[in-house]
Amino acid sequence: MTDTNMSSSAISTTTSPGPPPAADQSPGTTPKKTIKAWTYTKGGLPRNCLHLTTDHPYPEFPPPSQQAPGSGNESPKEPEEWLLVKVTYAALNPGEVLLMNLLPPLMSLAFSKSAGVPQVPVYDLTGTVLDSSPSSEEADSSSRASDDDEGASSSSKFKKGSKVVAFLPVGFILSSKSGALQEVISFPAKYAVLLPDKVASPSASGASSSSSSGANTTQGGIDKLAAGLFLAGCTALAQIRDAALQPGQKVLVYGASGGIGSMAVQLAREAVGPEGKVVGVCSTRNLKPVFELGCCDFVMDYINPATIFTGEVEQDTIVEGAGSNQEGRTTKETIEQALAGMYDAEEVQFDAIIDCYGSQTLYNYSAGYLKSDGVYSACGIHANGYGYAPILASGWKLMINALWPRTKWLGGTGRTWKAASMFDPGREMMEYLVGLFSEGKLRVLVDSEWAFEDVLSGYEVLLSGRARGKIVIRVGGA
């Protein structure tokens, strides 16, 4: 599955063979630079709409917005810094599939000029700064000339050759048609954070389902792991903050083996401290990897919830909780029934549930295991597909949960429900996660790594719903 031997492709500086130069290009002019990129112009799943092109236009830099002269009447203001970045790794996310499937038809209806314009997907990336505009020297000069340190540019920290990790918001990708699945990309510096040169143990061990090699302590390993940090990590952090976890509390993390869930269990432990309790829920094959993240007191198997994993033996009989429903337990019960049997008494119920899958059923029965003043913090509602019908159905359930969460006669559960979404996390959240990552307090679980040419295979793993952590794409050399 994982291809780790293919060398990165060099950026093309010539166009592919084709017809003679166009009328606006004389025979003696230098051909325009082109790059490799994955693009789509029609809606569908990745295997049906995503295509690899070798002659995608090289990003215009500085961007046109900085090249346009002013009228001379406006007040001078510090220009926004942009970066030109050679992409090293990108990480895949389910939300990108949703955009691929639904966006092109909607754009065709609403904006005829946007129809057929190639779109490059993917939010998460790591890479190397090739250039900045204004340049780092210009930004430094602007900072020294400013009398107000608070208003001075902080963008000068991005130098040529700097390693960065970035999250491209949906709004930027939609307006620019530019995402991380291309060899070189240009975007505002506010979407990027500097990568650390090294990370402390245990992050240095590279929490990877395929390898825990110490080789991940190299910069190349950091680039790979950090590529999966922001969208999943920021979503998990938003859920943890919505739950307002406090030291000593008890929290359940559902979907603990996915990209969001594997970070949520770690952030939950950071929030509740060693005196608190973190319980993870995932599938049988992922019990051990989740437990080995070192954050869960034990991990439950949602397929066979009458057993738990404590790390000592693979299957332990449930003895957790002081509930009154321990007798008559069977291996045929659902995870909701198992939790209710373990935590039916208010004094042992969870203070919060972090749902990283979007299970409506888990929320519907949460009164049986979540305290009356507890918070059910979800990453949304899981949709049974990427078409309009399942998305609308999920949206309806989301609205019902948010508007009437405590009104039982209107279909509520009597428990507060909150949803976290990640359109633009902001610098504070991104820098906080990079800090935890560099200190070894946040590990990135990697399911698999794929060569740039094998993006479609990576998406197949993502769509299978069985990924253990993040799926990363090796776009170029470190």
What features would you describe in this structure?
The structure is a single chain. The chain contains 14 helices and 17 strands. The protein is an alpha/beta fold. It has two domains: 213 residues, Medium-chain alcohol dehydrogenases, catalytic domain (Quinone Oxidoreductase, Chain A, domain 1, Alpha-Beta Complex); 187 residues, Rossmann fold, CATH 3.40.50.720. The protein has an eight-stranded mixed beta sheet. Strands 3, 4, 5, 6, 7, 16 and 17 form a seven-stranded mixed beta sheet that branches. A two-stranded antiparallel sheet has the order 1-2. Helix 7 packs across helix 8. The longest helix is centred in the first third of the chain and has 17 residues. The chain is globular, with a radius of gyration of 24 Å. The two termini are 22 Å apart. The relative contact order is 0.15. Keywords: Oxidoreductase. One of its GO terms (molecular function) is oxidoreductase activity. It comes from Rhypophila decipiens. One of its GO terms (cellular component) is mitochondrion.
Portion of residues in helices?
Answer: 25-40%
Under CATH, the homologous superfamily of the largest domain reads: Medium-chain alcohol dehydrogenases, catalytic domain
Structural class: alpha/beta
End-to-end Cα distance, whole Å, is 22 Å
The largest sheet is: 8 strands, mixed
How much is the radius of gyration in Å? 24 Å
Beta-strand residue fraction:
15-25%
Number of structurally distinct domains = 2
Shape: globular
Low-confidence stretches: 1-24, 68-72, 108-112, 142-155, 203-218, 313-330
What does the average pLDDT come to? 79
Strand line-up of the largest beta sheet: 12-11-10-9-8-13-14-15
Number of helices: 14
